[in-house]
Amino acid sequence: MSKLLLDRLKAQFGDSVLETSNFRGDDVAVLDPKVWRAAAEFLRDDNRCGCDYFVDLSCVDYPDEDDTKGRFDVYLIVYSTHKKHRVRIKARVSEANPELDTVGDIYLGASWGEREVFDMFGVRFKGHPDLRRILMYEEFVGYPLRKDYPATKAQPLVEYRDNTHDKLGPFLADEGMPFNRAPVDPKNFAS
Amino acid sequence: MGDLKVIGGGESGFFSTKLDALLGWARKFSLFQYPFVTACCGMEFMATAGPKYDIARFGAEAPRFSPRQSDLLWVVGTISQRQAPALRRIYEQMLEPKWVMSFGTCASCGGFYDNYATVPGIDKIIPVDVYIPGCPPRPEAVLDGLMLLMSKIAAGDKTPAILKNTALPEGSDEELEKLYQIRMKGKVPVMSEE
Predict the structure, then answer these.
(1) Which of A68, A121, A164, B178 is least surrounded, with the fewest CB atoms within 10 Å of its CB?
(2) Would you say residue B121 has pLDDT above 80?
(3) Which ranges of A51-169 would DSSP assign to H, the alpha helix?
(4) Best mutation target, A132, A157, A165, to test chain B (most B CBs within 10 A)
(5) Interchain pair A170, B175: CB under 8 A
């Protein structure tokens, strides 16, 4: 697609655009976290960008990445409904200081996306008015979509029942209670 | 005056036995259900409640959206750890006698959600009377499970039960064809070997 959006971003932010790429028509710009908010505002307000539609805000965890570079990639996808172009901007956030500016007041839909990223990855968004967990519960310790969180480690809110009184599932193949109906005999049906 | 027979705690006399049988008979045909529907199994639950499969034939058609008025808790679908306190609370609010139906694989054992967010089977939280396997179970399986529960209620049996596969009808091709025609009441053309 056109490189218009990437060119506009480069002209506006210069060296703060760390790298750009284009994969099968999808433009990606990796930005310095310092200009994250300004870039979102620029994409929305600039006449030639005109990205008026928020698509997605989420995060990817690269646990093997050097943390001084930033382990988490927070990305924002925006789209222009009348110019028909889309761009994805990324900011690298480190585990040691997982903070980024909020864009929830620029793109209102991003507000819940930021809550989800906070919930799942523990990235804090500075300036977010209501940064709470959105999917998990408040008592949950840790951030489940980080790759170093064990995927099967549950933190039950209700204590599990002990199995001293009733047998708990799963049952073995020969256990349980079969529902045995008499074998169907066609002769029993009057035709 | 004959000897007065004292009925101990472990025994039961003629009257209470008959009363239990009567109560079981009455209860099994008037199950007021509380549908706790959380996931895609709800579609099959709706099909079961709809006119084609018609759960009303078993006296279990009336949903009560207050747990205090219901006897039978249908847990239909995946239960997340976050929902678990609500499910537990609803079960505790139901009045005795009460029964729990675990509808589908996710409710029974967590299904393929082997992760941090899902309860691996509602029996970790509340006691279950009948497990209906399937992902999701067909309405026929649900009706089988309901009839199994009804027989358990009539027998006063509180042990957990799992629904097993029902046997397919056996017989020669002609017998099966005749059975099929009888069931379909002649609404389909006869299959011939042309």
Answers:
(1) A164
(2) yes
(3) 110-121
(4) A157
(5) no
